[in-house]
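Table 4 source record.
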Amino acid sequence: MSSAFEHAAGRAAGADPLPHTELRELKQLAEPDAARIFVKCEFLNPTGSHKDRVFSYMIDQLEAEGTIRPGQTLVECSTGNGGAALSRVCRDRGYQAVIIMPEGMTEERRKQIASFGGTIIETSQDGFLLESEDTARRYVQEHPGSHFLDQSTNDLNWKSWRSCGQEIVAELRARDVVPDHFICSIGTGGTFTGIADILKQQYPDIVTTAVEVDRSAALYAKRHGLPFEHHTHNMMGLGPGKVPSNLREELVDRVELISGDDGWTTMKRLIAEEGLFVGPTAGGNVFAAQRLARTLPPQTVVVTVLFDSAWKYFSVWEGQYPKYSTGDSATTR
């Protein structure tokens, strides 16, 4: 087990409130005559990803309304980040966690879930997250008393991200900065929706861009009247094979595509040049933000999010998942 993994697992001990993560302006990756880019460092949360925010909030709310109580088994579908975040909260609050996960996710993610006491049930690579969701529903039918949180459809997901939007607003105001663009990739749609909801309230002129991986771009296909077909890819957490119901589409002004190579290459630049130890989906967000920034005046401000930590990808450092074929082209273009 890597020292980075041990450090991340150690930070998660206890049930302390989540930190307010840093909002940082990129300097080394800044380009002459391009817009400024600010990144919200959600990878600094206790389990090394943005999903800590989701499941801490979700369990708080469900306990308050009496839907769940300690001693129950909580079930969720995940490619790993959400599974670790839920397993951590379950350990700290007296629940059991069952994580339904497509096969082929990284070993680091599997070990982290197990370290917090979570049980993993794998589904097939071909069915990906859609099969995982069906499996989760069958599991709760077969195990009375268990509860499927269903981050993909539960609106507590996007509501949890309003706090992140409020933090971004406060940090920008403290620097006397007004954002012009918000850009964020979509998986469950919760992160984009919750942050965009707050930013559009506070900055009515802000332009929002949802980013999809080109091999599973359901929203892009819908917006452009194209047929959609899901293809496997190496941007785990994105491209679930559908337009997620947690995405409030009225908050999306534009949709852009990135490739897996875009994300992985930019991830390594963020590590080497900015000292930000992030994963490929964070790289994908920054790649899309850079591409947008080149089209804007230098006084313009673009805000995006860094989702998770690089140590979760040590075993697939070249961006190749052994069980998944990740060819170059996508039918959704």
